[in-house]
Amino acid sequence: MENKKKDRKSDYIFAIIFNLIFLYIVNNLLNWNIYFITNDLNEVLWIINLSIIAAIIGNALLLAYNPEWFRHVMKIIMNIFAFISTYFVYIVFPFDFKSSFLNWGLSIFLILVMIGIVIAIIVEFYFLVNRRPDSEY
Asked: Which of 84, 85, 63 is nearest to 74 (CA)?
């Protein structure tokens, strides 16, 4: 049990560090003049940043307080932010690969990501509702 707690804490620390790096990268993509990233990224940058910050805060909270019910609630909240962010990226689509096949492929990928996030939300909600009252796994 103690080993699982340490593993989980290191997972949260890794997620925080990863999201801080990701936040930096996303906010500098336009400065790096990557050929397939369009200026439309500015339209969705706010929601991407909000989603990443929600993940950082959520993982920091889980690092400090980690009962099972709270973990499920935080994962649901972080997944909702991720879904909304992915949806906005899909709608605005700030990419242009100069290839309709690659653009279409990325659109399909974003749809699959959204479906995966919805499934993750449903699973977390199921575990939240059907958890054992004193379990701490």
From this structure: 63
Cβ(68)–Cβ(136) below 8 Å: yes
Do 39 and 98 meet the contact criterion of CB atoms below 8 Å apart?
A: no
- Eight-class DSSP state of 37: B
Specify the 3-state DSSP secondary structure of 95: strand
Q: Which residues, including other chains, have CB under 8 Å from residue 12's CB and lie 6 or more apart?
A: 59, 60, 62, 63
- Give the integer Cα–Cα distance in Å for 29 and 27: 6
The answer to whether 26 touches 48, Cβ cutoff 8 Å, is yes
pLDDT in tens, 29-47: 999 999 999 999 999 999 9
The residue to which tokens 């339209």 are assigned: 43
Is pTM, for the whole model, over 0.85? Answer: yes
What's the angle, vertex CA 65, arms to CA 113 and CA 1, rounded to 5?
Answer: 90
Tell me what pLDDT residue 137 has: 47
